Amino acid sequence: DGGITQSPKYLFRKEGQNVTLSCEQNLNHDAMYWYRQDPGQGLRLIYYSQIVNDFQKGDIAEGYSVSREKKESFPLTVTSAQKNPTAFYLCASSRGQPNTEAFFGQGTRLTVV
Amino acid sequence: GENVEQHPSTLSVQEGDSAVIKCTYSDSASNYFPWYKQELGKGPQLIIDIRSNVGEKKDQRIAVTLNKTAKHFSLHITETQPEDSAVYFCAARGDIDSNYQLIWGAGTKLIIKP
């Protein structure tokens, strides 16, 4: 089955530690995205990539980093510089053309302990 | 850049009644308007979308209407069922200046009362 997979589903991190969230897609999509979702709020764009080896900052990129070494993978690292990292993180992909559907993964819930 | 406002933030309707969620957008160049449904603990899923050359689109109990002049679009769910309970998000596709990114509304929590 084609789809987009995020792992792990739940993640706990100690303060001061970096942590990497995985996102893999087998839809052959060019574009991939990372969003952050806080309780009762909408989706805020962290980073996006429209092609391999290229990515752009979204609205809330501070404290996060990404890489796009392969078309199917777009990992997100939450660094210790992110002041309030506890949130639900969603990865998405699309064909990258203007009027096309975005497919989402099931999300990773990150909790800082 | 594009800005999308969504109302209401919470909507409670009796099972079997209709539900309407409204969104407004600011950029007249936007031409793609999807609606997503998010169930608890899951990622959003597309339920219906509309392009700016169409005024209305229907899929069984779900319909979306678009008024380009007023820059607003609405989601209509008829004969609501318990499984319709979820958070619904509208979005608008920005123009080339924003790399065609989706700009999201804040979401509406729909509660279907039995």
Outline of this structure?
The complex is a heterodimer of chains A (113) and B (114). Chain A has 113 residues and is an all-beta fold.
Oligomer: heterodimer
Question: What portion of the residues of chain B fall into strands of 2 or more residues?
Answer: over 45%
Characterize the main sheet of chain A.
7 strands, mixed
For the termini of chain B, the CA-CA separation is: 41 Å
Mean pLDDT of chain A: 92
Name the average pLDDT of chain B: 93
Discrete helix count of chain B: 0
Using the CA coordinates, give the radius of gyration of chain A: 13 Å
Protein architecture, described:
The complex is a heterodimer of chains A (113) and B (114). Chain A has 113 residues and is mostly beta strands. Chain A contains no helices and 11 strands. Chain A is globular and about 40 Å long. The model of chain B has no long low-confidence stretch (mean pLDDT 93). Chain B is mainly β and 114 residues long. The relative contact order of chain B is 0.33. Chain B is 0% helix and 55% strand. Chain B contains no helices and 11 strands. In chain B, strands 2, 4, 5, 9, 10 and 11 form a 6-stranded mixed sheet that branches. In chain B, strands 1-3-8-7-6 form a 5-stranded antiparallel sheet, with no helix packed on it. In chain B, a hairpin with an 8-residue loop joins strand 9 and strand 10. The chains are: A mainly beta (113), B mainly beta (114). Chains A and B meet through strand 5 and strand 10 of A and strand 4 and strand 5 of B.
